[in-house]
Amino acid sequence: MKLHEYQSKTIFSKYGIPIPKGRVAATAQEARQIAEELGGRVVIKSQVLVGGRGKAGGVKLAKDSAEAEQLATQILGMEIKGLPVRKVLVDEASAIDQEIYFAITDDRAAKKPVMIASAAGGIDIEEVAAKTPEKIIKVHIDPLLGLREYQARDVAVAIDLPREYWKDFVKIAMGLWEVYKNSDATLAEINPLVITKDKKMIALDGKMMIDDNALFRQPNLTELRDTDEDAPSEIEARKYGLSFIKLDGNIGCMVNGAGLAMTSMDVIKLFGGEPANFLDVGGGASSEKVAAAMRIILTDPSVKAILFNIFGGITRCDEVARGILAAMEEVKPKVPMVVRLVGTNAEEGRRLLENANMITAETLADAAKKSVEAAKKGS
């Protein structure tokens, strides 16, 4: 789950990370009022969950409150990469002397968090990583010990930060570690962390990504979710506790177990097909849950066939079969469906589906091959 800049920076400030004065506005009139309170010269920043806001015209400098209202009117009427701008952040403008990229994120290969910093920071950090990777400093953090102050100082030295800013940098680094750890974040990023003309270090921009699997213990963060970037089918799946991601193919997939779902998608591609989604109904899926999953798959007009690959362990195959029949009764699908049921109550499940005009398969390879052929016929 991604957080907006204003949400991320609000969290940063709670952990002692300095941020510019500012507030979020939903109307141009609110933006003008906030600009007046801040003294007039402000930055108007679109709040959308995509990168490249500045290059798209979604970040503008206003010299006074009247211009702030004018620019906010323009930005609030924009769409950036298909997402509507519903709010703007009105921040006090800063006179920047130096920009630094600074973040803590997951390093899955090392199985540890990693602190990343670069004195060549700013909006083009990806270009820096591609062309001059030596300018990016990485330090791994032991998850049991946490970030140590000496590690933060080592990073400050490595990016040639003047000694007078080491203390502030260490304080910000320790604060960002607490943000990352306590929020179950997969990314806590400050880009840029700036040194201003008046010698202050401020987090000018902020970005956070939260681990969806940890949201059960982060109720306050769960409430901050912005669904604008989510497909309607993904929002619906979340209501039923389904793991669903929409893809660009034409073969709908319903599988129990994330690993089996990935394998099913791989085998579909092996036989020349393209999966339309990742969908894991999970262990112990009820017939109601299976019916909901099927309805969600069938809302995608690009789906030309559906593959059900159910391995009955905790999940009972007869329950899955009942869910499929319930959904078929409700949705009246017109696309061919291939079913592979193996495991607990598989025979009973197959009997229930005997009269449902479905294509059956014994192995995953056979099921994938038949679903690819069915999708081609249905195209």
Q: Would you spell out the secondary-structure blueprint of this structure?
A:
Blueprint: E1 2-3, H1 5-14, E2 22-25, H2 28-37, E3 42-46, E4 59-62, H3 65-76, E5 79-80, E6 83-84, E7 88-92, E8 96-107, E9 112-118, H4 125-131, E10 137-140, H5 149-158, H6 166-182, E11 185-196, E12 201-203, E13 207-210, H7 219-222, H8 232-239, E14 243-246, E15 251-255, H9 258-270, E16 277-280, H10 287-298, E17 305-312, H11 317-331, E18 337-343, H12 346-353, E19 359-360, H13 364-378
Parallel strand pairs: 15-17, 17-18, 18-19
Antiparallel strand pairs: 1-13, 2-7, 3-4, 3-7, 5-6, 8-9, 8-11, 9-10, 11-12, 11-13, 14-16
Helix pairs in contact: 2-3, 5-6, 8-10, 10-11, 11-12
What labels would you give this structure?
379 residues, four-stranded antiparallel sheet, 37% helix, alpha+beta
What does this structure look like?
With 379 residues, the protein is of the alpha+beta class. Helix content is 37%, strand content 25%. The strands form five sheets. Strands 1, 8, 9, 10, 11, 12 and 13 form a seven-stranded antiparallel beta sheet that branches. Helix 11 links the parallel strand 17 (305-312) and strand 18 (337-343). The longest helix has 17 residues, at 166-182. The two termini are 35 Å apart. The relative contact order is 0.10. The mean pLDDT is 89.
From the spread of the alpha carbons, the general shape counts as elongated
Question: What is the beta-strand fraction?
Answer: 25-35%
Number of helices: 13
Content-based structural category: alpha+beta
What's the helical proportion of residues? 25-40%
End-to-end CA span: 35 Å
Give Rg in angstroms.
Answer: 25 Å
Low-confidence stretches: none
Average pLDDT works out at: 89
Tally the beta strands: 19
- Main sheet overview: 7 strands, antiparallel
